[in-house]
């Protein structure tokens, strides 16, 4: 495996940024259907869940050339793009949409011409509606439908990049979409959960098989790598030296780390999961042949979405004995629970914990368990209510968040973790599944009240430019300098950047 230069990147996701939902031959996905059916707008200023239209979103579908120029000015080295299966296969599992392929080809080519490496993620929660109507990830046929999709992607787009991912955040997708109705397909069914998770893992193995074939055909470079991206929140025992809480963390890791990484890295499932299937009398058999196939087709590297650690206690702990920032969470297995202590813990305005302390130790744990594979931070960022009423958008809290986390990535590299890149969430403001358009994540502001979705850089844009230019060495936050830099950027922010 070749030695790679470290990439500073940004990440985004098709259904959150793209728009153009029924243009270019595209049809609906489960997210189109979900947002139409569950449309809700909370009061202004409330940190509540907004489920809004994604018909236009940030309109990347039309504005990708503008965005590529903005990324080039930033010095961005990569763009992680969670792709949209439905745009390429809008009708069924066999019929390629030429317009969908051509659009992606134009986007990837434009990015490369602007010095930005496309880093595609082939699937992120957005099952085509035609597939869902036939059972979606509960239907084993989806494995072959997905095979055709990835073959097309490698054939037509493989020339643009040598870094690929299969899936992103399988844990959130299956837990929130198959054991809950928080996200589509809102199944709330244990058997559906098991089937969906297993067939997701099988699609990854199928993708690896096709990845190797695509290399042999010359569609992909021989050095190309294929990874799986997981959103593991490393646990911290609520009571530091309490044996029950330490044990609860170990069980938590089996469910929230090993269950989602072992299948596509080791070709196995943790015993807690297999025992749970038996105890719940779930009528689904994971065959020996499937496990052998996954073991034969492991992923090449690990993507990690690090936002925060989590505090875990034994299930028996009485959470009324401590002050909480928000209610504790219980899970479908009653062996641990997640708590949000108010004392000595920092939170964002959206009540997400701010704590980079488990990034290095978590990376070392992953390395110890899965070997010296390449690693890449694929998502790390902070949702906030940005003040966009002034000439300069001063998002200092976001810069402070990014600074302390990038510093830990550099420490992990020094500690021997083979990090090949850091990708922040996200390039520009987008639709958030948890906050709609009121939850700002981007380095670049998007005016969602503007018909052209006008772009404008924030202070974090000037800061990340400094970070990239210094190769991660200059993380200083000099307000005077950064504001001067941002003003200089805005002076050259002509109509080609809006």
Structure description:
- The protein has 498 residues and is α/β, with parallel strands linked by helices.
- It has a single domain (7-497), classed as TIM Barrel (Alpha-Beta Barrel), CATH 3.20.20.
- The chain has 16 helices and 16 strands.
- It has helices spanning 14-17, 30-37, 60-74, 85-88, 98-113, 129-132, 142-157, 170-178, 190-217, 243-265, 271-279, 288-296, 358-370, 396-414, 459-469, 479-491, and strands spanning 7-13, 78-82, 117-123, 163-168, 225-230, 235-237, 301-305, 310-314, 329-330, 336-339, 346-347, 353-354, 375-379, 419-425, 444-446, 455-457.
- It has an 8-stranded parallel beta barrel, surrounded by 4 helices.
- Helix 7 (142-157) runs parallel beside helix 9 (190-217) and helix 13 packs parallel to helix 14 (396-414).
- The model has no long low-confidence stretch (mean pLDDT 97).
End-to-end CA span:
40 Å
Overall radius of gyration: 22 Å
* Integer count of domains: 1
Number of helices, where a helix is a run of at least 4 consecutive DSSP H or I residues:
16
Look at the structure and give the mean pLDDT: 97
Spatial order of the strands in the main sheet?
Answer: 1-2-3-4-5-7-13-14
Could you estimate the helical fraction of the residues in percent?
A: 40-55%
Instruction: Tell me the overall shape.
Output: globular
Q: Runs with pLDDT <50, length 5+?
A: none
**CATH level-four homologous superfamily name:** Glycosidases
Instruction: Provide the CATH architecture.
Output: Alpha-Beta Barrel
Oligomeric grouping of the chains: single chain
Biggest sheet features: 8 strands, parallel, barrel
Q: Can you identify the CATH class?
A: Alpha Beta
Write the CATH fold name. Answer: TIM Barrel
Organism: Spiroplasma alleghenense
GO molecular function, one term: beta-glucosidase activity
Family: Belongs to the glycosyl hydrolase 1 family.
InterPro entries: GH, Glyco_hydro_1
């Amino acid at each position: 495996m070749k030695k790679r230069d470290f990439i500073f990147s940004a990440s985004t996701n098709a259904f959150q940024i793209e728009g153009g939902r029924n243009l270019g031959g595209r049809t609906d996905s489960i997210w189109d259907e979900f947002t139409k059916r569950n449309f809700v707008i909370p009061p202004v200023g409330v940190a509540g869940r907004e489920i809004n239209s994604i018909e236009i979103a940030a309109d990347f579908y039309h504005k990708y050339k503008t965005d590529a120029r903005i990324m080039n000015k930033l010095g961005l080295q990569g763009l992680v793009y969670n792709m949209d299966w439905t745009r390429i296969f809008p009708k069924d599992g066999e019929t390629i949409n030429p317009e969908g392929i051509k659009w992606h080809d134009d986007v990837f080519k434009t990015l490369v011409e602007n010095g930005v490496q496309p880093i595609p993620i082939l699937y992120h929660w957005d099952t085509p509606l035609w597939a869902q109507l036939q059972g979606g990830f509960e239907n084993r046929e989806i494995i072959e439908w997905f095979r055709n999709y990835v073959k097309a992607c490698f054939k037509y787009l493989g020339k643009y990049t040598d870094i690929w991912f299969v899936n992103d955040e399988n844990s959130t997708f299956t837990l929130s979409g198959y054991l809950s109705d928080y996200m589509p397909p809102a199944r709330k069914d244990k058997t559906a959960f098991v089937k969906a998770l297993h067939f997701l893992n099988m699609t990854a193995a199928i993708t690896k098989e096709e990845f190797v074939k695509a290399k042999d055909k010359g569609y992909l470079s021989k050095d190309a790598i294929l990874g799986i991206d997981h959103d593991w929140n490393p646990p911290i025992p609520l009571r530091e030296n309490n044996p029950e809480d330490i044990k609860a963390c170990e069980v938590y890791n089996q469910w929230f780390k090993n269950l989602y990484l072992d299948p596509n890295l080791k070709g196995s499932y943790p015993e807690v999961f297999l025992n749970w299937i038996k105890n719940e009398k779930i009528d689904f058999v994971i065959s020996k042949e499937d496990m052998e196939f996954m073991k034969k087709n492991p992923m090449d590297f690990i993507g990690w979405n690090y936002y925060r650690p989590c505090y875990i206690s034994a299930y028996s702990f009485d959470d009324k004995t401590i002050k909480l920032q928000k209610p504790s969470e219980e899970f479908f297995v009653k062996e641990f629970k997640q708590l949000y202590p108010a004392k000595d813990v920092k939170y964002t305005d959206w009540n997400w914990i701010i704590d980079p302390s488990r990034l290095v130790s978590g990376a070392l744990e992953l390395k110890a368990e899965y070997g010296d594979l390449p690693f890449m931070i694929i998502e790390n960022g902070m949702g906030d209510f940005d003040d966009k009423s002034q000439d300069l958008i001063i998002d200092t809290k976001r810069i402070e968040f990014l600074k302390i986390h990038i510093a830990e990535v550099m420490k992990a590299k020094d500690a021997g973790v083979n990090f090949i890149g850091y990708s922040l969430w996200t390039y520009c403001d987008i639709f958030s599944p948890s906050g709609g358009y009121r939850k700002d994540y981007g380095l670049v502001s998007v005016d969602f009240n503007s018909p052209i979705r006008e772009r404008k850089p924030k202070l974090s844009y000037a800061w990340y430019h400094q970070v990239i230019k210094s190769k991660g060495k200059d993380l200083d936050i000099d307000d005077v300098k950064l504001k001067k830099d941002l003003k200089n950027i805005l002076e050259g922010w002509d109509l080609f950047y809006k």
